[in-house]
Design a protein that fits this description.
Elements lengths: L5 E7 L5 H16 L5 E9 L2 E8 L5 H13 L15 E5 L7 E6 L7 H15 L5 E7 L4 E7 L1 H6 L4 H11 L3 E8 L2 E7 L6 H5 L2 E5 L2 E4 H4 E7 L7 E3 L14 E11 L5 H14 L10 E7 H30 L2 H25 L5 H31 L4 H27 L9 H5 L1 H28 L12 H13 L10 H23 L13
Antiparallel strand pairs: 1-3, 1-4, 2-3, 5-14, 5-15, 6-14, 7-12, 8-9, 10-11, 13-14
Helix pairs in contact: 8-9, 9-10, 9-11, 10-11, 10-14, 11-12, 11-14, 12-14
Length: 539
């Protein structure tokens, strides 16, 4: 879980121009907010009547502590707001990585009688049900206008009835209100009294008395046109199908009105499980909250994407482990391969436990770290098993007698090699910025795995070797034909490079060949033959 915390602060200043907002509110606010510990950048935007400030904290700052510091700074320094000029109370809207929706569902209809207003009404009903799904945090709808009542004033009629806009505003506020006004006791029964009601229809709004002229009441419909209809849209959402739509069952060509429901998850919850629960609940709403003439399509499912990538990496991890075991099987034997396989499983299990204890989650980066280091993790166990095998092949000792000197013989070089690899990997853990916490599981998991593999190689592997190879016959395990063939190949292909001055031309050709290969590999990125991408589209 990478902490990327920022917040938007809205400071209303009714009636002020953008320049006045900038000079009197935005600039002083920037200076105050930039003093907060952990703030990396402060941006401001000044508009007529409001200042919008964005405060971005450094990557890794604790979200709760950062927001508390922000609230404390704003509310303990309200004296910087200009007094008696009508500046409103600042509104703080914290944002973070968990505000990004993991699932989006698009509601659409191919029926002409079903418009965006009907879709938005259906979407709001579905929102309530999806908020009940465990793990969801923020559910909202994008697109589609809400139905509102438009009151279009007639300036000439207002003037004729000697009414001001403020008179109408106050009348509407007073009429559209309801409050508890005490209680009435009758026959030993206390009856609560509710004063006032909310306006529910266009006719009721039109019949509102907004003033008196020449002894007669003036109704709102006398000075304004009242219409119920869609609000001014802030977003336009349409749903269209392409050539590949038929493959997933969408055989309705065209572009249709639509709205999109976005669902974000709570921090620390499993995105895969939350996404599955949301889609499952949506299926249960068909026929009840979702009418027959409304269709839905899951247009984003980061949970399914993450699960597919994780399953793919798990398959690669299993494949890499199997390849190592098979190679040991052909090189040393089936019992030795069994020992190495058991050592790998123990090392991976202990590494995953250590990763969990460190606070990492199981995701694509941590799985990649295990795959990346699988070849290094098995080295220690293979070296120990192979050296024990060699000592037994030389004869003259029992297995219990051969194990201590065999392990001791390779102990020093193995420890040195392990810590050399750790020294090469660990600096990546100190990278700053967004890439720091994103990439840190790789060096930390790999380094922990190396240390654990070293412990397993020196503690568990000798014991496994004693148990598994205890009854194996080593009388035929001598260094014979196989090693001789290997030496012949070595002398044939490597020997010419080792012949003093005679080998200089070959060594130079090899060096030039390596340099050319390096340059060609770099050109692959320059000419975009290999596409570089630092971060995945979704994690």
């Amino acid at each position: 879980q990478i902490n990327v915390t920022f917040a938007n602060v809205f400071i209303p200043f009714p009636g002020a121009t953008a320049e006045e907002v900038s000079d009197l509110v935005a600039t002083p606010a920037e200076q105050i907010l930039s003093e907060i510990q952990g703030v990396e950048h402060v941006y401001s935007s000044s508009r007529p009547g409001i200042a919008v400030l964005t405060i971005r904290f450094r990557v890794g700052e604790d979200r709760t502590a950062a927001i508390v510091r922000l609230y404390n700074k704003i509310y303990s320094n309200q004296d910087w707001l200009p007094a008696n000029l009508g500046v409103g109370t600042p509104i703080i809207k914290p944002k973070g990585i968990d505000d990004v929706p993991i699932v989006t569902i698009t509601l659409w209809s191919d029926q002409t009688q079903c418009n965006s207003c009907d879709l938005i009404k259906t979407a709001h009903a579905i929102e309530v049900e999806l908020k009940r799904v465990n793990g969801t945090r923020n559910v909202y709808t994008v697109g589609g206008p809400d139905r509102i009542v438009h009151v279009r004033l007639d300036a000439q009629r207002l003037g004729g009835y000697q009414l001001a806009i403020d008179d109408l505003r106050l009348s509407l506020i007073a009429a559209n209100a309801s409050a508890f006004s005490g209680s009435l006791v009758r026959d030993n029964v206390e009856i609560p009294v509710q004063a006032g009601t909310f306006m529910t229809s266009v006719d009721e709004i039109g019949g509102l008395v907004v003033g008196v002229f020449n002894g007669s009441p003036v109704y709102l419909r006398d000075v304004a046109e009242i219409i119920q209809g869609p609000s001014e849209p802030e977003h336009y959402v349409s749903f269209g199908t392409g050539p590949s739509a038929a493959a997933i069952g969408l055989d309705k060509p065209g572009v249709f009105p639509a709205v999109t429901i976005a669902i974000a998850k709570k921090a620390g919850t499993n995105a895969v499980k939350v996404a599955k629960d949301v889609v499952k609940r949506l299926g249960q709403l068909e026929g009840t909250f979702i009418p027959e003439n409304v269709h839905y399509t899951v247009t984003r499912n980061y949970g399914a994407t993450a699960e597919a990538k994780a399953q793919k990496l798990m398959g690669k991890l299993t494949f890499a482990t199997a390849i190592v075991v098979v190679l040991v099987f052909f090189a040393l034997g089936k019992r030795e391969a069994l020992i190495v396989g058991m050592a790998i499983v123990i090392t991976l299990a202990m590494t995953l436990f250590a990763s969990w204890a460190w606070g990492f989650t199981l995701n694509r980066v941590s799985l990649f770290a295990l795959i990346f280091s699988i070849g290094i993790l098995v080295d220690d166990a293979i070296v120990v098993v192979e050296n024990i095998h060699r000592h037994m092949a030389m004869g003259g000792k029992t297995l219990a007698e051969a194990i201590p000197p065999a392990v001791d013989e390779v102990g020093g070089p193995t420890i040195l090699a392990t810590f050399t690899v750790i020294a090469a990997l660990l600096p990546m853990a100190f990278v700053t910025g967004l890439m720091g916490p994103y990439m840190s599981p790789i060096p930390i998991n790999a380094s922990m795995g190396m240390i654990i593999s070293l412990v397993v190689a020196f503690v568990v592997t000798p014991w496994l070797t004693l148990k598994v190879l205890g009854k194996q016959d080593f009388s035929h395990a001598h260094e014979g034909d196989g090693d001789e063939k290997m030496m012949k190949l070595f002398r044939r292909y490597v020997g010419p490079f080792l012949r003093g001055e005679e080998g200089d031309p070959l060594r130079k050709k090899l060096l030039y060949g390596i340099l050319i290969a390096i340059v060609l590999s770099l050109l692959l990125a320059v000419f975009k033959v290999v596409v570089l991408k630092m971060l995945p589209f979704d994690n």
